[in-house]
């Protein structure tokens, strides 16, 4: 046993190849990073299933090759069971969460400004990454597992008043949409907000934007989710069908902000831009596996002074704010819980688009609860 | 003689077809819009030659078909010689200018907010457009001509302290770059500003951004304009050559704002985005004739929270602010003057890329001066 191992045996659902996404993960032991004095260890109680997990297992973004085996999962909540000497904000017994990022340089201007998610040296993903600050070269492993070990800087306390099972999917999915909604003034400077794609991220975006006081328009490909969108807080739903331009007739220049959470290929961005008022923003948070932005005619940017941008997950502060907002506003995420041992079934169902709208894996032996 | 004609005979250089851009315009009489009580008439003293004039004459943007003959020119300065009853801010004898827009609905929320350039009903271009508010259906004719007639709302007083010959190219080219530099905080929130393309618009962008106190980086395809860029106020020049990515090594995340004034096709937008700090803006003001945005990978937007947008000319207020700024800061546009009768030679030279950096046509018989 090497010096960096405690008595804990780290085990998780490992993707050995691209078939994992179809329900082919294997329960496997793995070696975590060396414990550093600014690290913590969690007994994982909950781990959300995020779209990125699937894209990673399938190598759909082309980023996974040579990085198998992978233990994915970056919406982790658990009990703090080990705390390094340098950790100030957490103690044993706390319930804490980790999102999609587990490390960065902590020294560059962006890290210093509290935007570790835009670290100039790049960020270490909670899975599929390599540590470079401590335990340099070690692979990072995620939360479809029994334990998690990593930098406490990226581990936040789950506030009272938020069900930790619902907090889990907020660590990535929730924060990813909360952050741009806040950045672009949903409910304040951006009164009219469109949410494209009613899936895991989109359902959070509708919930949050409505709670921020925005007039929310859900934009969906089919009528399947009309009722859900309204229950989540959307005031109207635009169904695009196969003729987006026709569907948007009469809605031109009616929105201040659009969050694109869909990752469908061939998104008709020019049509979406037509929905924006001058100075409006279209913010991409979902990435299609095919991956590149369909042509947008510059005249469509120029003639309305509209903006296309993207937003990456959230900072540590962003996660804390998201959780606090959810608690203060009694946000109820639509979560279905699966026992950790049924992770393959859950992944398969998620991959087939059945989630309404987020799945969370539960370790009952660590205190996770299968029922709310 | 119809009731809408005064004794003035309107004549100008007309593009009869796509060959005009090679120096084939014909001096021709034409009928202006019917005079309305909120119109003015100018004796044209100066008219700048704008890149848009060339794109329009050549039908390079595909917008001109069926709209010949065209009298282009939308950087017009002249003496007010007729004033409708409803005009308050101008009187006979004033020296006034018109930019690229000569009409809009004046009623929509954008017009009311002083952003006529984003009018919800569309704008009437100073040439190649059709009036719809007064004299509905009449074609608009520009400033390669002896007179101009149109709505006073879009006609601004040229302030003392700005040479009217230099004011002319500020009516479109200058204002087009001044507006986004101001909108995105050049010299204040955007300390480090990149200007892509050192041409007519780019030369104004460098002049203005430097005067606003920004640290300006000129980005150019070749070394040809290095010295000029520095004389205009750039602190450094990046020459891209044919390997933009290589040229940008070491400059990643060094700029807050990039104005793309170049209209070269196949712009490597992904590479430009790498120059932006998180929250930075890339603003397109030039449009290639080939016309559509090269693919940008969404990850490059997402991972730095950077923005692509466009900006269209300027509002009436924007033109006034631009002229005032130029006067207050003693901005000297680099202008070469041609007699109006040599318009074909000037257009041909401009089309061949010889301008350093703006040409202005001069009507000496109306008081325009061929020498500064």
Automatic annotation (TrEMBL), chains A, B:
The keyword Metal-binding applies. Its cofactor is Zn(2+). It comes from the Eukaryota. Gene3D superfamilies: Medium-chain alcohol dehydrogenases, catalytic domain, NAD(P)-binding Rossmann-like Domain. One of its GO terms (molecular function) is oxidoreductase activity, acting on the CH-OH group of donors, NAD or NADP as acceptor. CDD domains: CAD1. Keywords: Metal-binding, Oxidoreductase, Zinc. Residues 23-361 form the Enoyl reductase (ER) domain. The keyword Transferase does not apply. InterPro entries: ADH-like_C (IPR013149), ADH-like_N (IPR013154), ADH_Zn_CS (IPR002328), CAD-like (IPR047109), ER (IPR020843), GroES-like_sf (IPR011032), NAD(P)-bd_dom_sf (IPR036291). Belongs to the zinc-containing alcohol dehydrogenase family. This is Chaperonin 10-like protein. It comes from Dioszegia hungarica. The lineage of its organism: Eukaryota, Fungi, Dikarya, Basidiomycota, Agaricomycotina.
